[in-house]
Automatic annotation (TrEMBL):
<protein>
    <recommendedName>
        <fullName>8-oxoguanine DNA glycosylase N-terminal domain-containing protein</fullName>
    </recommendedName>
</protein>
<keyword id="KW-0378">Hydrolase</keyword>
<dbReference type="InterPro" id="IPR052054">
    <property type="entry name" value="Oxidative_DNA_repair_enzyme"/>
</dbReference>
<dbReference type="InterPro" id="IPR011257">
    <property type="entry name" value="DNA_glycosylase"/>
</dbReference>
<feature type="domain" description="8-oxoguanine DNA glycosylase N-terminal">
    <location>
        <begin position="16"/>
        <end position="117"/>
    </location>
</feature>
<dbReference type="GO" id="GO:0003684">
    <property type="term" value="F:damaged DNA binding"/>
</dbReference>
<dbReference type="GO" id="GO:0016829">
    <property type="term" value="F:lyase activity"/>
</dbReference>
<dbReference type="GO" id="GO:0008534">
    <property type="term" value="F:oxidized purine nucleobase lesion DNA N-glycosylase activity"/>
</dbReference>
<keyword id="KW-0227">DNA damage</keyword>
<keyword id="KW-0326">Glycosidase</keyword>
<keyword id="KW-0234">DNA repair</keyword>
<dbReference type="Pfam" id="PF07934">
    <property type="entry name" value="OGG_N"/>
</dbReference>
<dbReference type="InterPro" id="IPR012904">
    <property type="entry name" value="OGG_N"/>
</dbReference>
<dbReference type="GO" id="GO:0006289">
    <property type="term" value="P:nucleotide-excision repair"/>
</dbReference>
<keyword id="KW-0456">Lyase</keyword>
Amino acid sequence: MRVQRIAERIIRVEDIHDFNLLKTMRSGQSFRWMVSDGLVYCITGDNVVRLKQKQDGSLVVAASEEEWERVWKTYFDLDHDYSQDAFAKIDQTEVEKRICNVGRGIHILKQDPWEVLASFIITQNCHVSRARKIVGELCNRYGTEITNTDLGVKFKTFPSPAEILKHGDDIARMGIGYRDYYLLSAAECVDSGIVPLRSLHLCNDTRLKQVLERIVGVGPMISNSVALFAYQRRSAVPIDMWVEYALIYLLGGGISLRKYGDLAGLMQQYIYYYVREGAYLPENR
């Protein structure tokens, strides 16, 4: 991977292997991104970036070299080898091979644990468009405006646990139903240290998910989402309705993602993308 400065706060990143920006952002991991005039905007913490991916796979990025190295290279997990060599060693059906081919280019984002936890709590059982709207409204209401950007578009941070607790009564009027109680419960657990997100990276996979599931409303789907999308535990598999449907109707119910080991989380993302983006459309959706 080579980084070249081409203008003030504009860099070109070349020699990127097996990374597709739009596939990655459309794979259901993050709700904090947008596309405008062919440009992709992503947000994490108090950082915003604008990107465009060229046909040769290179990226044109509105960021400094320092910001790219410090934030975005890690966020997009560009140091990890996503080649298909490891999948070739696994006994796959023709359908599984086709899923891998369609999903190729998806990376596992490395996101903030609190943002992943809170986002999946308030969007559980929601379609993607509704989920993005809910998360966007939460940030617009209670986040802090990001001022260290000259991209010409205003963004706000994801509200902290303390900010969520401060506005508890107002959140109850957001229209997210029973999820408001779960969100406030999570904010209390994190803010008080009952669930120490900053130190959970020291736990093994099982313990990490057990601690997360102390929170009211957090079950295997959400704990696996946090394990995979925040702590990059690559064997974690968050099974939502799309993936469950595919496992039953597309793969015949006889496929266990466990055989993929540390590739299970990525394979789950491939399946989600394959079904969600319409590469496979069940007749009885």
